[in-house]
Amino acid sequence: MPRHRTTALATAVLAVAAGAVTTVTTGAAAATDPAVTAAACESGYVALTYDDGPNPSTTQALLTALRNANARATFFNTGQRVQQNPALARAQVTAGHWVANHSWSHPHMTQLSAAQMNQELSQTQSAIAQATGVTPRLFRPPYGETNATLQSVEAQLGLREIIWTVDSQDWNNASTAQIVAAANTLQAGGIILMHDAYQTTINAVPQIVANLAARGLCPGMISPSTGRAVAPDGGSTPTDPGPGSCTATYAETQRWGDRFNGQVTIRAGSAAISSWTSTVTLTAPQSVSTTWNGTPSWNGSVMTMRPNGNGSLSPGATTTFGFTVMANGTWTTPTVTCSTP
Q: Which segments constitute the NodB homology domain (predicted)?
């Protein structure tokens, strides 16, 4: 479906809060030296965003293109399509990307009542949480159309609103070259609008990322506090962890006034693994009150999680475990690692 923007909002960027997702790789293909990564991104970060998925015709190919380019993105999914394609929504999170709310049915939100707005957003929240284990904290209104009533509904649901700074025009039959040219206008902190619907958009990924790198820019996440693209919270780009190794990817799945739930996805590399061990490092005075799908042990602020029973995984296979953190006034994202015997 073609998508268009409201001209008055063409360059508006509103505050957004996104669930934190971090990926750590260990083993043969461990993450690059942070100093090297920082140097490569010396000019800053931009956000690659894709609307209207997940799409059985394009999502998997788009994820592959992003992985091959070592890039992370934010997917603004519609609730209907998540309900129809839950495995593809899970694949987005497993690959280390961020998922966000783009309404249930992609209506013109400003033409709806407050109750209808609430239904569009809350149904999508539930669908994404059920499919991925992640509750979005970020919302992009369809067509970039917003008003005070919609923003009030967003706030009631714990969502923040984000538009874009660059429109790729992929919805308007832009060619791959034109999409790449639009991305070339991104500046540090900027956000580009693209869609999970077009082969031209998928084809643009390698050149977009290469051109950003040539300018000292890297794909990043959208800051919860500023609504601008920043470095991922302690994360690395999603890469193949290599033979005999694994990755640990953290996602916050729910938050209350005093605690939050976290989920860690363990993924085997290009060879099967016989078992795995994951560490979760908290920031004092945080503490873990509950865990599931694993056997934990503690050493101060570090929780070590091992599988319940057989921890073997076939190449590229995943498993998850979770926990509840009592914040005790500290909301710092835990850091995670994975290692193999």
A: 44-220
